[in-house]
Design a protein that fits this description.
With about 220 residues, the protein is an alpha/beta fold. It has helices at about 1-5, 15-30, 40-50, 55-60, 110-120, 135-145, 160-170, 175-190, and strands spanning about 70-75, 85-90, 95-100, 125-135, 155-160. The radius of gyration is 19 Å and the shape is globular.
Length: about 220
C-alpha cells in the first residue's frame, strides 16, 4: 500500500528489481510503523543489527522513548543525491534504511555513498545512522566492502539481514489480537520472500541412525 501511495508500483521508469525493493520496503516497514518504536522495530534492531562502529550500537541502545516516531518513505534529496528507501526519526537519532533486494557489486555500491550524503544533508545535530538491509548471503560482504569508506565517519554504518528480521518478529511485544495478526502477516510476507534461516531440526524429526555414508 505504501509503495502504491508513493506511485512506486506503477512507475514505468523503475526496473523490476527496484519495484520489488520498493514493494518490500513499503509492505514491511510501512506496516511496522504502526507499532510504537520501543515495542516493535527497536526490539529487532537491538537484538540483530550489526556494526563495527561502537557509536552505531550506542545510539540504538540509547533510544528509550515511547513517544511518536516518524518514518518517511523515499525521501528525496534537494541536492540530487537521489532518495532514501526509508528515513526514521526517533528522539535525537536519525536512521536511514537502504533495502538491497538484489545484490550490487560488493565494492561498488554507489547508492550507499549517496545515502551517506543525504544523511548529512538532512541532519544537523542529530545522531546519523545508516542501516543496510539485505539477504544473509549478501549483507556482510556489502558491509565489509563499504564500512571503512570516508563517508561513514560521521554517518555510522550498520546492517541487518532479512533472515534475522524474520527471527526478530518473535521479539515484538503485541498487546492486542489485532497486533498479533499484523505480526503473523509480516512473518508470512517474509516467509513468502524466502527469508527464513535454518533454525535447527524439528524436535519431532526421526533420524535413522543406521543410515549413513562411510567415506573411508
Amino acid at each position: 500500500m505504501i509503495a502504491e501511495i508513493n506511485q512506486k508500483t506503477c512507475n514505468a521508469m523503475l526496473s523490476h528489481t527496484e519495484s520489488l525493493e520498493d514493494e518490500l520496503t513499503g509492505d514491511f516497514f510501512g506496516t511496522l510503523r504502526y507499532f510504537p518504536y520501543m515495542r516493535g522495530l527497536h526490539k529487532i534492531l537491538l537484538k540483530y543489527a550489526v556494526s563495527y562502529d561502537k557509536a552505531f550500537r550506542s545510539a540504538i541502545e540509547g533510544i528509550s522513548t515511547d513517544e511518536y516516531f516518524d518514518m518517511e518513505f523515499w525521501k528525496k534529496s534537494k541536492n540530487n543525491y537521489g532518495e532514501m528507501d526509508a528515513f526514521l526519526s526517533v528522539e535525537n537519532v536519525r536512521i536511514g534504511i537502504d533495502n538491497v533486494y538484489r545484490c550490487p557489486p560488493f565494492d561498488d555500491n554507489a547508492q550507499l555513498i549517496r545515502d551517506a550524503k543525504m544523511m548529512n544533508e538532512w541532519c544537523e545535530t542529530e545522531e546519523m545512522l545508516l542501516l543496510l538491509v539485505a539477504r544473509e548471503e549478501d549483507t556482510r560482504k556489502i558491509y565489509i566492502a563499504n564500512c571503512r569508506k570516508p563517508h561513514f565517519q560521521k554517518v555510522h554504518f550498520g546492517y541487518i539481514t532479512w533472515e534475522n528480521i524474520f527471527l526478530g518478529l518473535d521479539l515484538i511485544e503485541t498487546q492486542t489480537r489485532y497486533e498479533e495478526i499484523i505480526v503473523k502477516d509480516l512473518r508470512e510476507l517474509l516467509k513468502a520472500k524466502g527469508f527464513m534461516s535454518f533454525d535447527g531440526f524439528d524436535d519431532k524429526t526421526n533420524i535413522d541412525g543406521g543410515l549413513y555414508y562411510d567415506f573411508g
